[in-house]
Amino acid sequence: MPTNQDPASNNFERSATRRLISLTLGVLMAAGGAFAFVWMLFHVVEPIKAMFWMAPVVVSVIGLYIIWDDIQNP
């Protein structure tokens, strides 16, 4: 299996270890961002800026994108 191919080419394949690490990272980021959002929703009592609400949402979206990329490009 070649290891130095261009990821943009159609015949690029990720190793099983890289895919496992990537899927684990995606799941942890998606779950962590969702947990942080829910925690903030129930435990923050004072009004805070939207920027603080964006952080867990962005982390979740990045995690979901990583998972989506692994599923679409095996």
Supply database-style keywords.
mainly alpha, 69% helix, 0% strand, 2 helices, 74 residues, single chain, elongated
Describe the protein in words.
This protein has 74 residues and is mostly helical. The chain has a domain at 22-72. The chain is 69% helix and 0% strand. The chain contains 2 helices and no strands. It has helices at residues 16-43, 50-72.
SSE inventory with pairings:
Blueprint: H1 16-43, H2 50-72
Helix pairs in contact: 1-2
Short description:
The chain has helices at 16-43, 50-72.
Q: Give the N-terminus to C-terminus distance in angstroms.
A: 14 Å
Oligomeric state as shown? single chain
What fraction strand? under 5%
List the secondary-structure elements in sequence, H or E. Answer: HH
Mean pLDDT: 84
User: Can you count the helices?
Assistant: 2
Shape summary: elongated
The percentage helix is 55-70%
**Residue ranges: pLDDT <50 for 5 or more in a row?**
none
What structural category do the secondary elements indicate?
mainly alpha
